[in-house]
Automatic annotation (TrEMBL):
Species of the source: Halothiobacillus diazotrophicus
Entry keywords, A to Z: Aminopeptidase, Hydrolase, Metal-binding, Metalloprotease, Protease, Zinc
Domain Aminopeptidase N-like N-terminal residue range list: 32-184
Domain Peptidase M1 alanyl aminopeptidase Ig-like fold: 442-536
Reactions listed under catalytic activity: Release of an N-terminal amino acid, Xaa-|-Yaa- from a peptide, amide or arylamide. Xaa is preferably Ala, but may be most amino acids including Pro (slow action). When a terminal hydrophobic residue is followed by a prolyl residue, the two may be released as an intact Xaa-Pro dipeptide
Function: Aminopeptidase N is involved in the degradation of intracellular peptides generated by protein breakdown during normal growth as well as in response to nutrient starvation.
Entry-linked PANTHER family: PUROMYCIN-SENSITIVE AMINOPEPTIDASE
Keyword match Repeat: no
GO MF term set: alanyl aminopeptidase activity; metallopeptidase activity; zinc ion binding
Enzyme class name: hydrolase
Protein name per its UniProtKB record: Aminopeptidase N
GO terms under biological process: proteolysis
Cofactor dependence: Zn(2+)
Length: 867
């Protein structure tokens, strides 16, 4: 595929003001008639070029007359009308085959129902159109379908009518008054039931809300509905944004490439982000639903009312909306724990992406396949970049900036530059240096050192970045004594300062009233105000103090993480060539910090759970630029866990017992924290060779009335191969085998087990009745969990994991290129492997890349990976 470049952006040659669509639905031959008012944009004589893919053209009418074949040119991707008037009406009839649409873009079928996915370029698989986000049109839609098979007919906007169309068919009409880009178009038709509710907006309008699901899932929508109403209220209270249609509909479908889609007034969701009740969904599922429902709802303003000029502006809507949904979740639960989880994710996924072959700026400068740019960089780093603006400006000024942005650009397709301009106007600040965050790939590093002078503490910061232009960022800092007391800065009562870091080398001097013999420990980048790596020579003692005494919970957690890393990396490095003869002693500082934190489980169990979570194997692997020692990472991580469990066994048991949640399941922060700390504690205890702790897990499984507690028991037992684990897995399967969404948890656990048989098991499970290669959730659960969550087996020295994954990706690429491309990012790591593994992984990459039939999606990923 040709490279598309931001620098080549040109305003559209033609604008489309209205489009009336009529769908005559049929699984294999759906007729789509599209009538558009087209108008030339500016003065030129260029042709009208419409996008279209996998369409059968039936007819074209031009101002009411059939257009003869010599008046247009048709290729497999474009329809060109060389000679058109200043403005005119075009009616195009196409035929499409939704049942054959396995790529899940455009109009397709899921569980026999019809649904659409148009972002980013799916609308061109429905009809010929100028399929780019800066074409904003008013849509009206008529859907004609068999009334028994498809009783529910939905589209964007407000409903107008539902009538009989004769011969057992019905016709539904919908009108969306808000001009929108084609990527926000949506249609759903099927046998669905709805959970209905209402919402009264701040100005007193009544909105009808509905969540449509397959009838057997009717009792699993309450949490999503609750999340929707909370989101609607939050956006009014926090950003002053009110909903703008009479109805808001959500539909859950099983076959979906991503999490969900913010189509105007008709959000379509992957069912995993809607369906939940206590016995089928875990706390993590509940949290995911709350945040994705909010995310899609918030797009109604950040994305829909104000949209993107082109796909290079993707982070304008995604980064901003992730920031909004993260702040919403923080307000609904524990702000500190949410921040810890968001940063943990950013470090594990986005930092790795930014350091690998797919690295790109938050605003990419070119792409071949835009689907490959729905990345953690665009979403999560993009959110951090918006958060930094909030931190630099302060909330009130930032809010004035967002008001200006929404007011000024309502109904328009705009750029990241426009957003920054609003922030700049609202604050009077020059943000031109800040723009670098959008333009340059890679995680900046700050090298921090300090010095003491009488009554002074000096902090020096050096930006270690590629290129010579420094970044601008807010950096919150505080100082603590070795006793853990906060130090007042500059003779005031102020304990925390936000530094604006904006030069390559910068230093700050604080006057402090601390005797020279008392050590000062800096707490840097508190709350992770800047998405950077900080290099400061912390030792065990300093980290142990911060992990206990820092007043910023994020930095307490971070100090714990750094403590784990210090010990683990040292052990991994010295154990790279095999385990040492005798076990290394458990470092006193680490053990003490662990024990101290355990004692806090009464106050904030969720925070304790985060603090006692070891860094993942993946994160440990990311610390190595070459020759990643997978075996040593796995072994040393498990050993440290067992050593801690041995020392703190009785305290762990106490924490487990004290955090028994109330008798019935409720999704509320304290109970979630209690279940989470029990999960962690149980997985420490089960590393010990004691039947009593295995029994503890079995009892938890047996007594649980909710999925969180029963699955956590399974998870804890999965650490070691035992008969009892096998028995419980069999019981779980027996109970849930008819519910694929729940079986995903079981598939993932099966794929992640490190008993030496993982690949063989995964191979066999592909034949399980609940598995389907066509369903992205199943593929991520089984194949994705194997490739990303079982580093030991996937990276087996004989390369069996690489060969097998490449074969599956090739197979999947034949029917769902987006899915294949996502899976292929598991190969990004190859240059950091030891030479023997690197050769094997490279061979697998070359094999995928060199197939003539390789999709543009996949070949962009494999091509960049091979570099
Ligand atoms: N804006 C939505 C993106 C999306 C998507 C992109 C590519 C292929 C399929 C997709 N489904 C949804 C999701 C969001 O960020 O809200
Ligand atoms: Zn989004």
């Amino acid at each position: 595929a040709r490279e598309i470049r931001l620098a080549d952006y040109q305003a559209p040659d033609y604008l489309i003001d209205t489009i009336d669509l009529t769908f005559n639905l049929d699984p294999i031959a759906t007729r789509v008639s599209a009538t558009m008012h087209v108008r030339r944009n500016g003065s030129h004589s260029r042709p009208l070029i419409l996008n279209g893919e996998s369409l059968k053209l039936i007819s074209i009418d031009y101002d009411g007359e059939k257009l003869s074949e010599h008046k247009f040119a048709l290729t497999d991707r474009l329809l060109t009308l060389p000679d058109v008037r200043e403005d005119f009406v075009l009616t195009i009839v196409t035929e499409i085959n939704p049942a054959a649409n396995t790529a899940l873009e455009g109009l397709y079928q899921s569980a026999g129902n019809f649904c659409t996915q148009c972002e980013p370029e799916g609308f061109r698989r429905i009809t010929y159109f100028v399929d780019r986000p800066d074409i904003l049109a008013r849509y009206s839609v008529a859907i004609i379908a068999d009334e028994l098979d498809y009783p529910v007919l939905l589209a964007n906007g407000n409903p107008v009518s539902l009538e009989s169309a004769g011969e057992g068919r019905q016709i539904a009409r919908w009108v969306d008054p808000h001009p929108k880009p084609s990527y926000l178009f949506a249609l759903v038709a099927g046998k669905l039931t709805a959970l209905k509710d209402t919402f009264i907006t701040q100005s007193g309008r009544k909105i009808d809300l509905a969540i449509y699901v397959e009838p057997h899932n009717a009792d699993r929508c309450a949490h999503a509905m609750d999340s929707l109403k909370k989101s609607m209220r939050w956006d009014e209270e926090t950003y002053g944004r009110e909903y703008d249609l009479d109805v808001f509909n959500i539909v859950a479908v099983d076959d979906f490439n991503m999490g969900a889609m913010e189509n105007k007034g008709l959000n379509i969701f992957n069912s995993r982000y809607i369906l939940a009740k206590p016995d089928t969904a875990t706390d993590a599922d509940y949290a995911g639903i709350e945040s994705v429902v909010a995310h899609e709802y918030f797009h109604n303003w950040s994305g829909n009312r104000v949209t993107c000029r082109d796909w290079f502006q993707l982070s304008l809507k995604e980064g901003f909306t992730v920031f909004r949904d993260q702040e919403f979740s923080a307000d609904m639960g524990s702000r500190a724990v949410n921040r810890i989880q968001d940063v943990n994710m950013l470090r594990q996924i986005q930092f790795a992406e930014d350091a690998g072959p797919q690295a790109h700026p938050v605003q990419p400068k070119s792409y071949r396949e835009i689907n490959n740019f729905y990345t953690s960089t665009v979403y999560n780093k993009g959110a951090e970049v918006v958060r930094m603006q909030r931190n630099l400006l302060g909330w009130e000024t930032f809010r004035r900036g967002t008001d200006l942005y929404f007011d000024r650009f309502d109904g328009q397709a705009v750029t990241i530059e426009d957003f920054l301009q609003c922030m700049s106007e609202a604050s009077g600040k020059d943000l031109s240096q800040f723009r670098r965050w959008y333009d340059v790939a890679g995680t900046p590093k700050l090298r921090v050192s300090d010095a003491r002078l009488p009554g002074q503490y000096i902090l020096k910061i050096q930006q270690e970045i590629s290129g010579s232009e420094p970044y601008m960022m807010p950096l919150d800092v505080a100082l603590f004594t070795a006793e853990g007391d906060p130090i007042a800065l500059d003779g005031t009562g102020v304990l925390v300062q936000t530094l604006t870091v904006c030069e390559m080398h910068q230093s700050w001097s604080f006057s402090v009233d601390v005797p020279p013999n008392i050590r000062i420990i800096p707490s840097l980048n508190r709350g992770f105000t800047a998405p950077v790596e900080i290099h400061y020579p912390y030792d065990q003692e300093a980290l142990a103090i911060l992990s206990h005494a820092d007043s910023d919970p994020f930095n307490r957690w971070d100090a714990m993480q750094k403590l784990w890393l210090l010990t683990l990396l040292e052990r991994i490095k010295s154990g790279q060539n095999g385990p040492s003869e005798s076990e290394p002693p458990l470092p006193e500082g680490l053990s003490h910090a662990f024990g101290q934190i355990l004692l806090e489980s009464d106050q904030d169990p969720m925070f304790v759970a985060e603090c006692i979570s070891l860094p993942s194997e993946k994160y440990l692997a990311d610390q190595f630029d070459e020759n990643i020692p997978f075996e040593a990472i796995h072994r040393e991580r498990n050993l440290l866990r067992r050593q801690l469990a041995e020392v703190w066994e009785s305290t762990l048991l106490l924490v487990y017992e004290k955090n028994q949640p109330a008798d019935h399941y409720r999704y509320e922060p304290r109970a979630v924290g209690q279940r989470q700390v029990r999960r962690l504690v149980l997985s420490y205890l089960t590393t010990l060779d004691r039947p009593a702790w295995l029994q503890l897990a079995v009892t938890q499984f047996d007594r649980a009335d909710n999925m969180t507690e029963s699955f956590n028991a399974l998870f804890a037992l999965s650490v070691r191969p035992t008969d009892v684990f096998e028995r419980l897995m069999a019981r779980f399967e027996e109970r849930w085998r008819h519910d694929p969404l729940i079986m995903d948890k079981w598939f993932a656990l099966q794929a992640q087990r490190t008993d030496g048989d993982a690949l063989e098991r995964v191979r066999q499970l592909m034949g399980h009745p609940a598995f389907s290669l066509k369903n992205p959730n199943r593929v991520h659960a089984l194949i994705g969990s194997y490739a990303r969550g079982n580093l030991m087996d996937f990276h087996a020295p004989d390369g069996h994991g690489y060969q097998w994954l490449a074969d599956r990706i090739i197979e999947i690429d034949g029917f769902n290129p987006q899915l294949a491309a996502r899976l292929a990012t598991a190969f990004n790591i190859w240059k950091r492997l030891d030479p023997a593994r690197a050769i094997l992984m490279k061979e697998a990459l070359v094999r995928m890349n060199e197939r003539p039939a390789c999709s543009p999606d996949l070949s962009e990923i494999t091509g960049k990976s091979l570099g």
